[in-house]
Amino acid sequence: MSKPIVRFAPSPTGHIHIGNTRVALLNALFARREGGTFILRFDDTDLVRSKQEYADSIETDLKWLGIAPDIVLRQSERFDLYDAAAEQLKDVGRLYPCYETPEELEFRRKRQLARGLPPIYDRAALKLTDEERATLESEGRKPHWRFRLDHTNVAWNDLVRGEAHVDCGSLSDPVLVREDGTYLYTLPSVVDDIDLKITHVIRGEDHVTNTAVQIQIFEALGTAIPTFAHHSLLITASGEGLSKRLGHLSVKGLRDAGLEPQAVASLAVLVGSAEAVRPVADLNELAKLIDFSHISRAPAKFDESELEHLNARLIHEMPYEIVRERLVALDADLGEAFWNAVRGNLTKVRDVAEWAKVVRGPVTPVIEDRAFIDAAAEVLPDGPWDTTTWKAWTEAVKTKTGVKGKALFMPLRLALTGLDHGPELGNLLPLVGPERAKARLSGQMA
């Protein structure tokens, strides 16, 4: 296989959500694995709704995920290409002008439904004479332009779906150019894929019908057709479709919530596939797990609780050298021993600040049995302390008081940390140190 050229083509009309991220990751990681090229193409022909702030946000999101594109371009800078393609389609009789108003089209649609006919465009505009078109234009009507479909069965070998086909006789001729001369998604997408030599179009199942139409446009323009892969869509845990407009599971929101990009990527890529969903810390390893033939066609649920679980599992295995700079930024870098002691209790890296405070204070001790804590303080070993100190101390406390089990360990934890949960005290106690431990056992905030 020649090196693939793939593209992620979002519209910069909002923050991308996890469903968009699935598309971006499958494209980018496929290209990475095969030594290909990953292009970010902003589909910003809607000049009113497209915003630079959203384009910037999308680039930030992709960089955070670790899949910065090799090439970035914008459709708004490529109208000359689309104009030339439109003229070519007009010259071969595949792009034709139509003059119906939206109200007239809606009336026809309802009339066809009432007659039990499919509500597709009846191609009335093809029957207009030059004189009739001139009359409509003299009335101030401007044409929109439709692509005349061949009413055939369009088939292709889809990397996800296998043999796929769409009966184009059941479709309306799609509008490619609006009355104001602006382009809808369909034609610029094909023209860019041709110009950029896109080899694989990897996108969601909701584009299957578009693919049949676009294959006919590729053919009408006399060019090769790329390979297609239509993967399953992601939905929320409650079964809703994802929407940029409604802000469902935006990447920005997940990032702001403190989640790890590797957790987001792992779930976005593996959910709904034959691979077990698990945290994969390295994107190169994640890329090796992509097999389009093993992706289910059924919608896959993206569960935020599952994402939290994956996030925690990643952090529990995260080496100190990987996270050190982030600990510094959080003012929680107390060394490798501290990180190794507390990471098993973290769901998000930023939660480490709570345990840094437990170690260095101030902590308000919780003492429910003063006599027991005083007895424990009397046998507290002198320093220096290491990871064996906790066991030696609790054995001494048990011998002195006769208390054992939870009744022994919990009061000591409450007094030393002010909390009823946390990391193993065998690892935490040496970090707290003798001075702070003695102060807390005496009831002082320290």
Automatic annotation (TrEMBL):
One Pfam family hit: tRNA-synt_1c
Organism: Microvirga vignae
Entry similarity comment: Belongs to the class-I aminoacyl-tRNA synthetase family. Glutamate--tRNA ligase type 1 subfamily.
Residues of the Glutamyl/glutaminyl-tRNA synthetase class Ib catalytic domain: 6-308
Enzyme class: ligase
GO cellular component: cytoplasm
Oligomer status and interactors: Monomer.
Binding site for ATP: 244
Domain Aminoacyl-tRNA synthetase class I anticodon-binding: 370-442
Localization, UniProt: Cytoplasm
Protein name as catalogued: Glutamate--tRNA ligase
Motif 'KMSKS' region mapped to chain: 241-245
Principal location class: cytoplasm
Reaction catalyzed: tRNA(Glu) + L-glutamate + ATP = L-glutamyl-tRNA(Glu) + AMP + diphosphate
Keywords from the named record: Aminoacyl-tRNA synthetase, ATP-binding, Cytoplasm, Ligase, Nucleotide-binding, Protein biosynthesis
